[in-house]
Write a structure and sequence with these properties.
Length: 228
Amino acid sequence: MKRLQRLLPAAMLGVLLCAGAQQVPQGPGPTYRIIGPDGKVTYSDRMPTDPQVRTRELGRTVTAPLLAPSTAPFDLHPATALPPPARPVGGDAPPVDISGKPFPPGLPEAVLDVLVHQFFMQTLTETCDRLRPAFAERYRGGVRNWRDRNADILAKSNHISFTRFTGEQRDTLRATARVRMAQLLPAADASAEDRMTWCDRMSTDLARRQFELVGDMRVAPILYFDAP
């Protein structure tokens, strides 16, 4: 009996705590900022289902993708003007590097530009060596000279890639670079003659320094960036 009396207060306390927990009011739910097709801004505590409206949850930071989507064909020739800065979509925060700091504007795109050039040069050598082995030294020499002329930019871009980008971000850069490089190659069903013509044209443009990174304004963010 005495033991039961000792246990009773503890049991009653447990019941009271459970009841109190059930009566604790829940905090306010998320608030959504909604922009309609007409540009009108409204707020709601319910997530809209209309696909024509743009919605953002207030108080929640969403990091923008590393690279803005692009459907335009890639051009190996140097750009003479700085590209317009990519704006985060829907008020997203800019992408951040391996330390959690935002990337300088245009830096991921500049590193991507260098990577596309590097992949293209490697593919040019492999493809044209196989098609026209008698001219292999011509192709290899052209690519080797290109690498020598652009060595400083290549080295700095590679350094930035491995010190400021995460492994997942580097995978994204490589995958995107291969997709954009594919636009520059002969069609999959191109004849051997068309492929050899492509090799000769690319080799000639390479010798004429048509694909230089030096002077390409798209890689300017790499030059301005103070890498540790």
